[in-house]
Structures are given as C-alpha cells and as structure tokens.
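Re-run with default settings, no changes from the original entry. Doing this only to confirm the output is reproducible before filing.
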Amino acid sequence: MPERVEFDGCQVVEKLRSGPVTDLYHAIQKPLGRPVLIKALSSSILPSSPFAASLEREARLLAELHHPGVLAVHDFVRRDERMWLVLEYVEGLSLEELIERVGKLNPPVATAIALEIARALSHAHGFGIVHRDVQPRNVLIGFSGNLKLINFTVAVDERMPTAPELLDGSAGFSGPSYMSPEQILGEASDPRSDLFSLGVVLYEMLSGRRPFDAPDQGTTTQRIRHESPEPLTRSVDHLPHALDRAVRRCLEKLPSDRFASADELSLILEQILADADQGSARSVISQALAEASIADEAPKSLARPTRPTAPKPEPDSLRPALAGLVLCSVLAVLGGGAIQALEWKRSEGTPRTSPAIEVSPSIAGYLRVVAEPWANVIVDGQKVDTTPFARSIVLAPGTHYVRLEHPNAPTERRTIHLVPGETVLLDVKMAVEHAPVPDAGIVDASEAEASP
C-alpha cells in the first residue's frame, strides 16, 4: 500500500517525482479548490540541514518575483521535522520533453519560446537574481501555450553573500552542457551567464542537438571554453539571419561580447517573431502544441492556467513600452529618480555586472590568465604571478603587453586593451617541447595556486 502523505490544507492527488532530497506532488489546495505543486523536503532530510536552507532560500527568491513567466510560490510551510513549498501548478510538459517528442522546432516556435524565457530572465535579473541553471528541463510549457521558468534552487541573489547548496540531480546542475565558460572556470555568474545558457537552449531547439556536446564532460567543457559551435545554417532550413546572429552572440565566450541584458535580447527576438507574422509568442507556442497533438492530452479541467493573471500583452503592444524604456536609459544614468528605478529593472547596466568586475569599475580593468601546463605571467615587463590560476589581475585601463614564459616552451606574447570594468581572459596552451624540470620554488608556487 502506498505511503500516505499529508500537507496542511492540501489533498495529494499523486506523487510526481521522488529524489534524495526533495519530492514533488500534485495536490489540491482545499480551501480554494485549486491545483498546486508541492515541493517537499524528503523525510530523510532534517530541516536543520544545508539542503533545507536551500529550499527555504528558493522560496524567498520566488516570493520576490511576480511575473507570468516565473512559477509562483503560494506558501512556505515548516512543521516540526517537515518543510515544503506550495507552488503554482500548470498542466503541461517540460521543454526537454517537447524536444524529445518532436525533435527540431521550427524557427518561429523556437523564437517564441526563447522570447518567453528571456522575458522571465529579464524580470529576475531586475531583482539581482541570476538563475544559473537555464536548460530545457527547467522550462515548463503549459498546454495552453503559457511558459514558466522553474527550479531556482541554485539561483544566486547579489544581496545574499553565499551561494546555495546543490540539492539533487533534479534541481541542480546536470553536467556542463548548458554552463557558460565563466561558470566552468568557477567565476561568479552574472545575468550574461544566463544568456549563454539560453543561447545553448535556443541552438538545441533549432537543431535538435546541443552545440558543445562531446563523449565526456571534460571534452564538453573544453569545447565550451575554446570552440565555436557548428553553424546553424548547416542543419536548419529557412533560418532567419537575425536569429542566427542572435544565437551566435549569446554563445560568445566573453560575457562582454554577448547581449548586455535579457531586455536587449528580448527586443531582438520580438522583432524576429514579428517579421515571421504568426502572432504573439503564446499563440505561436499553443499552435505548435496543437499541431503536434500535445495540447489534446490536457484534462479539460486543468488545461487553463491555474493562477489568474492579467492578459499577456501582444508583442506589438509591448514593443513601444520596451523601446521607451531604452530611450529613457540615458536619463536614468543621469539619476532621474523613478526613471532610474525602471532602468535598474529593465537593463543590465553597470550595477548588474558580476562581482569580479564590480571593483572600482571607473578606474580598473581586469586580466585573467589560464595557461597549460603553467607559465610565468609578465605584464608590461613586470612578473605578476605564476599559473595555473584563474583569478583577476587588476590593471589600469588601456593597452598592456603580456608575456607568458615557460622554461621548455616558446614565449607567448599578447597585447590586450582593457576597458574600465571589463575582464579580458587569456587562455593559452604552452607548446612545451618535453617534460619540464622547473626549480622547486616554481613548482611550489604553481601547486600552491592550484590548491583549494
């Protein structure tokens, strides 16, 4: 006989998924009669554990966000040794399941889905929240065409000093496939990291495969850091040039080369969808589900969104508002009170850069060096450090001359141009001719840098 589980004020309909740390249930909130999603801490985990703290952290982050594209939290409950979230329930399937069932998505549908994700990310970024785990399994598509960004378990908030604990494979990182180069290097994530992940998702929707996948995780991480993906034009028919450019820009290795914000990407995707002339993002998605006979699977009582929301604006009505905010950005920089507050939410701007490039942005630039197997780093004729390391070197803005020296390899020379507040990454493989025999001092220094 199955275990009987009860949650205050909720009647469990079915258990959806069980994990080592959290369990998911479909339930009915009895006072209101509405379907809800229960995300409960496993009975084997105590509320005093770091995993429980991560669940509470997720509740606090979701409580700040009120957007049609973000799964809403209705309640957070702690009872004795139990803890759970009461979340919005949407009858649908994940984007991962959709890709598995239909394969490639045509460009308008992929654009519509990416646009809805970008809008949700823009809202979260406006509150200083970076999702850090944007991937198809964390995007829920309702049978009526509505889309929800879910699983903020590993999200970071710039106002919270510590990163959350990873929970389990269903709520945390699942391999490097969707991670940005800076995440792989262990750097702090900023909103542009989410845009890289969204670029991977968009590439996968269009081509049916991820851009950097390899037989093992080590090779995948190397491809993400060093290689460009195969051009989409080779595998996608009738691909709009603007959409191809948008994907390539999202997948740039350096954050500074990507879109400055999710808002900027949203404006581009809106225009691409408008050029396709197939209606709003939601109507394009719902039509695609109907054509794939997926929407017909929805129970009639649950086919509509379960959380009443105002009608979603059509792209044509939303575009003037977004354009107006962009035009107001100059006034916001000058300190225009309410306009500045809007700009803070709608654009990444300087306050939304990562902590690594936040230090004295008006007077400093940053250099990061990764050299294999190791090298002495000389900047403008002065030795700075010995790799392997990936921390920032603070330098004055302008032109600098960098040498990487190894006793058994030719010297590598680079000229860099630093802009205030930006980071330049040099990732160099030294052409070592044979096994190095460095003196003990150098070996100790490199090993010390490599140690945690």
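The longest strand covers residues 409-418. The chain is about 35% helix and 20% strand.
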